[in-house]
Amino acid sequence: MADAKQNGYGLPAINVSNMETMQTLLEAAEEMKSPIIVQVSPMQLQYHEISFVLFIDLLRRIGRDISIPWALHLDHATTKEQCLEAVRAGFDSVMFDGSHLKIETNIGILKELRKAVGNAITLEGELGAIGGAEATEESLTSVMTDPTQAAEFVQETGVDFLAVSIGNAHGFYKGEPKLDFQRLEEIEKATKIPLVLHGGTGIPEKDLKKAIQHGMCKCNFFSEIDRAFQEGLFEEPEKNGMYMQKQKNARRRMKMQVKQKIKECGSEGRA
Ligand SMILES: [Zn+2]
């Protein structure tokens, strides 16, 4: 992250949840010689019925044969317990998403987490709310991150990275997303730590690059990559084929999409 911040590129942070998606992500990053953040949310693990321990064992085995640097991050944990369980299992980094809580509670839990995990684990916090893509422009504006509050939040919690809301949203955007770059510049100046762009899907390349230039060092992508995998599953001529045939197309499509994101983030060749 420090290298990304210093050299003005973004580190793609991509959600995976099973063996196929782990292999595809790491292979894509390796072929592009890009460092990569592998991430998963507690919700994904629940859907796939995979424990933190099984997830990391599988990833470590796959990652052992991969030559680029990768790290494992827990995305959108909503409780302190989830973060601690992930750290005990061996995750490198965790996000506690307390954006839906009162700010004092959000700060309080992050402080407790820092105390519990020390400085070896990186902590991501979120201030301001990043909505789903159904969010309207007005509703997004009302929950955007306030630069002054962000500086205090970083100071008090000691988070390593901060997820901010500047008009970005999760999922697929209805129209063209409008990012508030003025606000982003102010947050960057006020906080000085690497910032995290959630809802990277659908942000035009020029805006993504501009956001990276203003401190968005970790760029989260999921929806587009998940969609590519699914489209691959139902691609002709395997429409009626067996899973082993379909997943081959799914992996090919996902890999193309990951490589595209690596290019857009400028992390190609940085490993
Ligand atoms: Zn997110």
Write up what this structure looks like.
The structure is a single chain. By secondary structure, the chain is an alpha/beta fold. The protein has a single domain (2-265), classed as TIM Barrel (Alpha-Beta Barrel). It is 50% helix and 15% strand. The radius of gyration is 18 Å and the shape is globular. The two termini are 12 Å apart. The mean pLDDT is 94. Bound molecules: zinc ion. Zinc ion is lined by residues 76, 130, 170, 198, 220. Zinc ion (ZN) is lined by residues 76, 130, 170, 198, 220.
List the helices and strands and how they pair.
Layout: H1 2-7, E1 11-15, H2 19-32, E2 36-40, H3 42-48, H4 52-63, E3 70-77, H5 80-89, E4 93-96, H6 103-117, E5 122-127, H7 137-142, H8 147-157, E6 161-164, H9 181-191, E7 195-197, H10 205-213, E8 216-221, H11 223-233, H12 243-265
Parallel strand pairs: 1-2, 1-8, 2-3, 3-4, 4-5, 5-6, 6-7, 7-8
Helix pairs in contact: 2-4, 2-12, 5-6, 8-9, 11-12
This protein binds zinc ion.
Concise synopsis of the structure shown:
The chain contains twelve helices and eight strands.
Cofactors, ions and other ligands in the entry: zinc ion
Oligomer: single chain
- CATH fold label: TIM Barrel
Tell me the number of strands. 8
**How much beta, percentage-wise?**
15-25%
Number of domains: 1
CATH superfamily: Aldolase class I
What is the helical fraction, as a range of percent?
A: 40-55%
SS class: alpha/beta
Q: Indicate the CATH class.
A: Alpha Beta
| Major β-sheet annotation | 8 strands, parallel, barrel
For the record, give the distance between the C-alpha atoms at the N and C termini, rounded to a whole number: 12 Å
Query: Could you say what the CATH architecture is?
Result: Alpha-Beta Barrel
> Which word captures the global form?
globular
The ordered H/E elements are: HEHEHHEHEHEHHEHEHEHH
User: Can you list the strand order of the major beta sheet?
Assistant: 1-2-3-4-5-6-7-8
- Give the mean pLDDT: 94
